[in-house]
Automatic annotation (TrEMBL), chain A:
<feature type="compositionally biased region" description="Polar residues">
    <location>
        <begin position="568"/>
        <end position="597"/>
    </location>
</feature>
<feature type="region of interest" description="Disordered">
    <location>
        <begin position="226"/>
        <end position="252"/>
    </location>
</feature>
<dbReference type="InterPro" id="IPR019734">
    <property type="entry name" value="TPR_rpt"/>
</dbReference>
<feature type="region of interest" description="Disordered">
    <location>
        <begin position="568"/>
        <end position="600"/>
    </location>
</feature>
<dbReference type="InterPro" id="IPR011990">
    <property type="entry name" value="TPR-like_helical_dom_sf"/>
</dbReference>
<feature type="repeat" description="TPR">
    <location>
        <begin position="749"/>
        <end position="782"/>
    </location>
</feature>
<dbReference type="GO" id="GO:0030014">
    <property type="term" value="C:CCR4-NOT complex"/>
</dbReference>
<dbReference type="GO" id="GO:0017148">
    <property type="term" value="P:negative regulation of translation"/>
</dbReference>
<dbReference type="InterPro" id="IPR039740">
    <property type="entry name" value="CNOT10"/>
</dbReference>
TrEMBL record, chain B:
<dbReference type="InterPro" id="IPR019312">
    <property type="entry name" value="CNOT11"/>
</dbReference>
<dbReference type="Pfam" id="PF10155">
    <property type="entry name" value="CNOT11"/>
</dbReference>
<feature type="region of interest" description="Disordered">
    <location>
        <begin position="1"/>
        <end position="23"/>
    </location>
</feature>
<feature type="compositionally biased region" description="Low complexity">
    <location>
        <begin position="8"/>
        <end position="23"/>
    </location>
</feature>
<dbReference type="GO" id="GO:0030014">
    <property type="term" value="C:CCR4-NOT complex"/>
</dbReference>
<protein>
    <submittedName>
        <fullName>Uncharacterized protein</fullName>
    </submittedName>
</protein>
């Protein structure tokens, strides 16, 4: 008999070795040889043995699998997709074989329901639970390892979503999987979920690991240390009683106990004896092990290692959920644990913590503590993280420099020989490109930003925010005048007046406002690779919208689930049916124990995790609202620019219906809707959109206050270390100039002018004149406000007045046709 | 995933001239892009000044010289200049109207119908002009139009237009839309609300009658203007703000954990794993096991608790196992506690027929594992119900006492709170 634990480790089972050896067939012996060779890193020899083995067991999926694995170690893994294909085929073959053998045994066993006497070698009758499918056919057709390796390759290829979908079924049914593999599954899944920023799943896995591998208690020392000690045994009584050899003494009394009681038959039973039986049942305590390992002298991960690894994940999760206080505490625990080890991971985490807390100098210091700074992986990481810190300190240019350096080192990983599988996952150039793109966007360089985002696409395409940023490049280009669209405001708008004719025939042609373009627009599409156009931006925003919809749907399901569960737990309803919904996500745990009201052991950690999840959820909600608002606002704006008033109108209405929409976006939605309605020949309704801001006759209230439009100061759990040296030191005028956000007063003026236009369209010239001139007075330098005022003057035939305004304004350019002709 | 390519604001470049800088794509589908060239303007002016030629000829000339795709451009330029009555002389205006009316595909009505109708009803215009337009518009058969055989100058001289009845606008429109295939052109209020964007320089006080060279230049310039439209109401469209960089949006990099490909150790392995225990558990569901066998099961499970998943246990078999071998049932259940199926095991346990053995199992479980909330309560009510339903007085008595002992044990072990029950 071979326990599952030997899956990775060479089968060095102690039990009656001689007898076992005798039974080992030739193939089994070869398999063992191959395994030993593999474990000792002699991959080439291992592959040879496997080749011979394959001759004996032609087409055996596991041999094929191991062969592919061994070969990938021989000379690197330059084509992971190919390996993925091989694994896919192997899995298919294994499933086919399992299916065939099941059918065979079914027919052999008739109904096939008496499991006791199933034929060996895969003839094991499947249990009714479908969840057991993967393991139930017995070892021969167990595809756990194949599945894991498939997910692993996908992980290395940064395809986290696919990796998750492959690996999750294993996790959902992780109990039957042997512990070593289960640990690998959990850790890989943790990395995947953290990469996907799925805090909920990550927390679930951490809790599962703590429960099942008995490492929960270490961290409770800080808080309520008194109670924890005796409680720590409580939460995992169910934990496997996989006894280390010496604990047999522990279990054997229990066993003999059981036996003595078990022989009772109902006939001979007296109440007293029942009584005593029941009583004794109480003492049937299970030995609790804080070591997950059993007979694991050669196992790499010791219990202490496991604890450290888990703690690292915990800190990363806490950082993700931005529970910085607890993260700090847990990091301290981690530092204590890791004493005397290579602590680069811990230092990096600490630097991240300080970065998140806004202690940038400290973060830089920690980042620069000499760790292995010759490898490109480390260098890429160092420069990238430094770039992040510099961004926070608003040193935009040095930040870009850092990101570029990081990019260079990261890309150099690809050319390493031999190309290891891990090199693929270590190449983080997509993420670094994204950082770089953001930085360019902040510096007002839409073309460079768009190019960076294009590089980041393979990894970030599933994030709505990414698409929003991509679209913002085009909007920025519009703002800077690299792109033009009718009606869109840019920073160098002007009114151009053509002077035609001469002498007595001199006429003036007043043109609509347009951007004084910085360079010729012709050929822009090839130059920017189509990344900077309004149509592309619209597509990006539609992508973002779709992703948001998906995301919110998913979220609402989860939210209602948890609510149900909470209620269920409070009502103390029967049999855990209510907790099923949670259990489907926390597949294997008696979390319901906590619902009993009593605070048990690890609950304190679970509570912190739960509360950070709650906090994180709230943060995400807030951010998603911001993103959603921005998407709709941008989209309505772009539809107006592309002259699709109908679409613009419906989007603006969506924005208005958004619950908790900020007042600033509400204002924009009204203005956009009004413009769309005007274009649709419905000036009356347009006016209604704007009159919501009308107070006391003809006065307009501020549509929003400064707090609404400026970004709220970030609450940080800062030591105050850096607070006396505020980060604004390098707030360049360049940057502030780019945030072309509208002040409330300007917004007010916009309402005046636009309301005036709706009045003009309805023929109410007097009202139009009044409104427009009030608006113009507030925005004397806005060419559009000027033109609106001129327009109303012309409507009223006041040419002289119009010309006077035009002559006074600095955003007006007079050009004679001669010069026009010359410029062509 | 990647959005479609975008055509971009490509300008259909005018022949031989580079497109104007930053010409925004205008909405109107009719308006071909590209400006009129200077020489085109003068050509057109020359055509228009042919006041003594028959109108037919001028129109034919226009059609011959201007390629079809440029005609709309020309037409809108002409219409634009016509708006200012001082620009053309009366005869020239007539020619211009004739071109607008005749210069387009004979199958379709002219796109400038509304311009013509408006001019025909413009009370401020010369009577001769209004009459001319009426004649043009009301001529059912456009090819056979007497009026076009004349020259513009002749028409003005003859002055028979005085007798022409001027119809109100509605009637003209109706009439015209009967004639023409195309219904009245839709104009949005934005375009309707345009104001003429060409104004005479107000600093020049007095205007003199049209004099040739000067005027030609102005007209040519005007014809060349990019947008032959009025000034539509300027609207302020504030751009949406850029979303601030969210916290944690910048990607901080961490060291990766080492994940390596795993070796499948079960290759060619003995597949009999768990066969013995499977056999024993199977037997345990059918009848009590001998003590040695029980011990075997317990020890095997103790050695490798994951075997519990390989011993073909199912919730359906649980009642049998409980009845025959309660202690093995306890052992199996406590090892299955993390199984995804554990809920169905508990469901079956709580609803199975009450007996000494099931009570024993439940009692042991209470101290061995964390039971789901409500489980104990449900089980107790099940017990009480069983006691109530029993007919045999003796059996009932016995059962009640059993339940009491059970409860006592629960209370003593603080599994249930006495007050709560």
């Amino acid at each position: 008999m071979e326990p599952a634990a030997s899956k990775e480790a060479p089968p060095t089972q102690p039990q009656s070795a001689s007898e076992e050896d005798g039974m080992l067939s030739v193939t089994a012996a070869m398999a063992r040889d191959a395994s030993v060779l593999f474990q000792s890193h002699r991959y080439a020899e291992c592959a040879e043995v496997l080749a011979q083995l394959l001759l004996k067991k032609e087409g055996d999926p596991k041999v094929l699998h191991n062969m592919a694995i061994a070969e990938s170690f021989v000379d690197g893994c330059p084509y992971p997709k190919k390996l993925l294909g091989i694994l896919g085929n192997v899995k298919k073959r294994s499933d086919e074989l399992a299916c065939a053998s099941r059918e065979q045994s079914d027919s052999a066993n008739g109904v096939g329901n008496n499991a006791s006497s199933g034929p060996r070698g895969g003839g094991i009758v499947p249990p009714i639970s479908a969840a057991h499918n993967t393991t139930a056919y017995g070892e021969e057709f167990d595809t756990t390892i194949i599945t894991f390796n498939t997910a692993l390759i996908l992980y290395h290829l940064h395809d986290y979503e696919s990796a998750l979908s492959v690996l999750e079924p294993l996790y959902r049914n992780i109990e039957p999987i042997d512990e070593t593999t289960a640990l690998h599954v959990c850790f890989l899944l943790l990395d995947i979920t953290l990469a996907l920023q799925d805090a909920l799943k990550a927390a679930d896995i951490i809790q599962y690991l703590e429960r099942s591998f008995g490492v929960a208690n270490t961290m409770n020392h800080n808080e309520n240390a008194g109670t924890v000690q005796q409680q720590s045994a409580q939460p995992k009584p169910h934990a496997k009683s996989n006894t280390p050899p010496d604990s047999d003494s522990n279990i054997c009394p229990g066993a003999s106990d059981i036996l003595s009681v078990g022989s009772f038959s109902e006939d001979t039973l007296e109440f007293e004896s029942l009584y005593s039986t029941l009583d004794r049942g109480n003492q049937l305590g299970r030995p609790i092990l804080n070591e997950f390992s059993r007979a694991s002298a050669d196992r790499a991960a010791t219990a202490a290692d496991l604890k450290v690894r888990l703690q690292i994940y915990k800190v990363r999760l806490l950082l993700l959920t931005r529970n910085l206080k607890v993260a700090k505490r847990e990091l301290k625990v981690l530092m204590n644990m890791a004493r005397g080890r290579d602590s680069s991971i811990e230092l990096l985490l600490k630097s991240q913590l300080e970065y998140a807390r806004g202690n940038y100098r400290k973060a830089v210091k920690l980042l620069s503590t000499p760790n292995n700074r010759t490898e490109p992986v480390m260098l890429a990481m160092f420069y990238n993280n430094l770039g992040c810190i510099l961004h926070q300190q608003r040193s935009n240019h040095s930040s870009i420099l850092c990101f570029s350096k990081a990019l260079k080192y990261s890309l150099s990983l690809r050319s390493e020989k031999p190309l290891k599988l891990s090199a693929f996952s270590q190449d983080k150039s997509c993420l670094i490109s994204y950082n770089c793109g953001i930085q360019h966007l902040m510096c007002g360089k839409p073309l460079l930003a768009a190019r960076c985002f294009r590089e980041a696409m393979p990894l970030l395409y599933h994030r709505p925010l990414f698409w929003l940023r991509f679209a913002e490049c085009s909007l920025l280009a519009l703002e800077k005048g690299f792109l033009t669209a009718s009606g869109a405001t840019s920073c160098n708008d002007e009114v151009e007046i053509h002077v035609v004719g001469s002498g007595k025939w001199r006429h003036l042609v007043i043109n609509p406002v347009k951007s004084r373009s910085c360079f010729s627009d012709s050929g822009s599409s090839d130059k920017h690779g189509n990344l900077i156009t309004l149509r592309f931006a619209r597509q990006c925003l539609l992508n973002a919208q779709l992703l948001m919809d998906d995301f919110e749907q998913e979220n609402s399901v989860i939210a209602s689930d948890t609510e149900d569960c909470n209620q269920g737990a409070q009502c103390q309803k029967s049999s855990g049916q209510n907790t099923m919904s949670v259990e489907s996500k926390t597949p294997s745990g008696p979390t319901q124990a906590n619902a009993n009201g009593e605070q048990k052991g690890a609950a304190s950690l679970n509570a912190t995790l739960q509360s950070s999840l709650g906090m994180y959820d709230a943060i995400c909600r807030k951010e998603n609202l911001k993103i959603r608002q921005a998407i709709l606002g941008d989209l309505a704006f772009i539809e107006l620019c592309l002259e699709n008033p109908l679409k613009a109108l419906s989007i603006a209405k969506l924005l208005q219906q958004l619950p908790d929409c900020s007042r600033m976006y509400l204002f924009l939605s009204h203005v956009y809707a009004a413009e769309a309605l005007c274009a649709l020949n419905r000036p009356k309704e347009a006016a209604e959109q704007l009159t919501v801001y009308l107070r006391d006759g003809n006065d307009i209230e501020l549509p929003y206050s400064v707090e609404n439009c400026e970004k709220a100061p970030v609450e940080k759990d800062s030591d105050g270390e850096d607070s006396h040296a505020p980060a604004v030191t390098k707030l360049t005028s360049e940057e502030s100039q780019h945030s072309l956000s509208l002040s409330p007063e300007d917004a007010c003026a916009v309402v005046y002018v636009d309301l005036g236009m709706t009045a003009a369209m309805q023929g109410d010239l007097e009202q139009a004149n009044y409104m427009v001139n009030r608006g113009f007075a507030m925005l004397p330098n806005n060419p559009r406000a000027l033109l609106a005022s001129v327009y109303v003057d012309l409507l009223q035939g006041k040419v002289q007045g119009a010309m006077g305004k035009l002559r006074q304004c600095r955003n007006v350019r007079f050009r004679t046709t001669g010069s026009v002709a010359a410029s062509r | 995933m990647s959005p479609k390519k975008d055509a971009g604001p490509s300008l259909s470049a005018a022949p031989a001239s580079a497109p104007a800088p930053a010409v925004a794509p205008k909405p109107s589908a009719f308006m071909p892009m590209g400006q009129m060239r200077r020489d085109e303007c003068f050509d057109l002016l020359k055509l228009l000044s042919g006041v003594s030629r028959p109108l037919e000829d001028v129109v034919a000339d226009f059609l011959a010289r201007v390629p079809p795709e440029r005609r709309l451009r020309f037409g809108s330029a002409i219409a634009f200049v016509l708006e200012d009555k001082m620009m053309f002389q009366p005869a020239e205006r007539l020619i211009a109207f004739a071109i607008l009316h005749q210069g387009y595909s004979s199958q379709l009505a002219t796109p400038f119908a509304s311009v013509l109708i408006n001019a025909a009803c413009d009370e401020t215009s010369e009577r001769s002009e209004q009459a001319f337009l009426h004649l043009l518009l009301s001529s059912a058969n456009r090819d056979n139009n007497e009026i076009l055989k004349q020259s513009a100058a002749d028409y003005l001289k003859e002055s028979f237009y005085a007798s022409q009845v001027l119809l109100p606008k509605e009637q003209l429109e109706r009439q015209y839309s009967c004639n023409a295939v195309q219904p009245k052109m839709h104009t949005s209020s934005c375009t309707a609300a345009t104001v003429r964007c060409v104004v005479p320089d107000p600093d020049i006080s007095q205007r003199v009658s049209p004099a040739k060279p000067n005027r030609d230049n102005v007209v040519a310039d005007l014809l060349q203007e990019t947008a032959h439209k009025g000034l539509s109401p300027p609207w302020i469209r504030p751009p949406p703000p850029r979303l601030e960089i969210l916290e944690g949006e910048l990607q901080w990099l961490n060291l990766d954990n080492k994940h390596e490909l795993l070796w499948d150790g079960s290759m060619c392995a003995d597949t009999s794993r768990g066969a013995a225990i499977r056999d024993l558990v199977g037997r345990a569901c059918k009848g009590p096991l001998a003590p040695a066998q029980q011990e075997q099961v317990v020890l095997d499970l103790a050695k490798d608790w994951k075997l519990v998943y390989h011993c073909a246990m199912t919730p359906e078999k649980l009642p049998d196992l409980v009845e025959h071998n309660p202690l093995i049932a306890v052992d199996v259940l406590s090892k299955l506690i993390n199984s995804p199926d554990i809920d169905s095991y508990f469901d079956i346990l709580v609803s199975m027929e009450m007996s000494l053995h099931s009570m024993e199992v439940v009692n042991r479980l209470t101290t061995a594992v964390d039971l789901p909330p409500g489980f104990i309560q449900d089980y107790i009510s099940n017990c009480i119900r069983s006691c109530q339903n029993i007919k045999d007085k003796y059996m009932q008595n016995r059962l009640v006492r059993l339940v009491c002992v059970f409860l006592q044990s629960l209370i003593r072990n603080k599994i249930i709170n006495a007050i709560l029950v």
